[in-house]
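Please, structure for the following, as tokens.
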Amino acid sequence: MTNAYGTNGDARDAVRAAAETFEDAAVDVRTETKRAAKRAQKSAIAASGALAEAATTFARDARTAIGEKAGKARAEADRQYGRLKVQAKERAEQADVFVHERPYVALAAAALAGFLIGHLLSTGRSNVVYLRDDR
């Protein structure tokens, strides 16, 4: 039988040639896909290494910056502590002088302060009991 390709044998040969061409193309696509996947994997590994290095550098820089800030804060706290310690000694000396010069005034002031503190603390809890007559 005769067709556009000639005989049936010629058509089969054309189909086989086309099938072989498709198979070769599929093999080429598969091979190139594998190569592209390997390249992508290598790029991903390189990128993850760069990311890990960047994270390590960031953490090191942050630790250094925090260490510097903590050192400054500690120095400031030490300075303030020293200043307050000196002030506390001065106030204690002034109180000692005041108590020795005016003992009755100091005793009255302490009693008044104790009374006020006790009164303020006791006002939070009322001891009054209200009874209702149900007659």
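The chain has a mean pLDDT of 85. The radius of gyration is 47 Å.
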